[in-house]
Write a structure and sequence with these properties.
Strand order of the largest sheet: 1-11-8-7-5-6
Number of strands: 11
Binding site for NADP(+): 163-165, 231
GO molecular function: methenyltetrahydrofolate cyclohydrolase activity; methylenetetrahydrofolate dehydrogenase (NADP+) activity
Bound molecules: 5,10-Methenyltetrahydrofolate
Strand content: 15-25%
Pathway: One-carbon metabolism; tetrahydrofolate interconversion
Largest sheet: 6 strands, parallel
Shape: globular
Domain Tetrahydrofolate dehydrogenase/cyclohydrolase NAD(P)-binding: 137-279
Structural class: alpha/beta
GO biological process, one term: L-histidine biosynthetic process
């Protein structure tokens, strides 16, 4: 048996086609959405992600505002760029690409929460906890959307999330336990004593620990859906948290690359379009 693919790359293409229509409708009303990015330093991975985001925007009619700063940029210099984008009417929303090597909580907190297309501002994470509407974090929502668009049932499912990071694991637990999702979630992490015992119960496994190969075939319930969110670089190649033999046991697996990564970009685009639509009362 080999698992079916949760194809993030193909789903990104579908979502882009849907969003392109909504962007065209906004243009008829005189609104052109714009994405800003703030990038500090010259990490090759970060440059690739930011470049990919601007390419995605160009394809669907969203304008790009790109601010690249040298690795030597100070906290005050990055904050000045954030202030500039907060005030820029052409900028619907923007991201501060992480990591910056600076005080990230201070940077994130300085972004106008209404322009926080990453959904990571403390106000927006607070809204998520409180169940209020607001921009949602892209990778967790992208993970849910990937399952939904492949017909994997979430309501009633036992979900094991492996990883408690702020960008994926922690918010994903909050999202999946909302009434609209109705999953039962166990949040595991590197301090979990018997990871396999938890994962074996799961109908859906989300591997977001950033530990290559931490999820092995012997831990996976036959037929389960397994999302590989981890991104590590081993010998220059992207390597996920899911061991290759999991494909022999699982019902569904998201590959890595071409799984959750492209879905993160899709949800960023979707967050921008939603903010722009709200501005015209659409
Ligand atoms: N403020 C902030 N927001 C982010 O959303 C953010 C961030 N900081 N810092 C870094 C991570 C990483 N991230 C990815 C986005 C797309 C892919 C992606 O599309 N990857 C491709 C190719 C990967 C490759 O080959 O290098 C794929 O999975 O198929 C991966 C990773 C967004 N991040």
């Amino acid at each position: 048996m080999t698992a079916q693919t949760l194809d993030g790359a193909a789903t990104l293409r579908t979502i882009k086609a849907e969003l392109a229509q909504r962007v065209a409708a906004l243009k008829e009303q005189g609104v052109v959405p714009g994405l800003g990015t703030v990038l500090v330093g010259d990490d090759p991975g970060s440059h690739w992600y930011v470049g990919a985001k601007h390419k995605d925007c160009a394809e669907i009619g969203i304008t790009s505002i790109r601010r690249d700063l040298p690795a030597t940029a100070t906290q005050a210099e990055v904050e000045a760029v954030i202030d500039e984008l907060n005030a820029d009417e052409a900028c619907t929303g923007f991201i501060v690409q992480q990591p910056t090597g600076l005080d990230e909580f201070a940077l994130l907190s300085r972004v106008d929460p209404d322009k926080d297309v990453d959904g990571l501002h403390p106000t927006n994470l607070g809204k998520l906890v409180l169940g209020e509407a607001g921009p949602l974090p892209c990778t967790p929502v992208g993970s849910i959307e990937l399952l939904r668009r492949h017909g994997v049932e979430i309501a009633g499912a036992e979900v094991v999330v492996v990883g408690r990071g702020i960008t994926v694991g922690r918010p994903l637990g909050l999202l999946l336990t909302r009434r609209s999702e109705n999953a039962t979630v166990t949040l595991c992490h590197t301090g979990t004593v018997d990871l396999g015992a938890h994962v074996r119960n799961a109908d859906i496994v989300v591997a977001a620990a950033g530990v290559p190969g931490i999820i092995t075939a012997d831990m996976v319930k036959p037929g389960a859906a397994v999302l590989d969110v981890g991104v590590s670089r081993v010998d220059g190649k992207v390597t996920g948290d899911v061991a290759p033999d999991v494909w022999d046991v699982a019902g569904w697996v998201s590959p890595n690359p071409k799984g959750v990564g492209p879905m993160t970009r899709a949800m960023l685009l979707s967050n921008i379009v939603e903010i722009a639509e709200r501005s015209v009362g659409a």
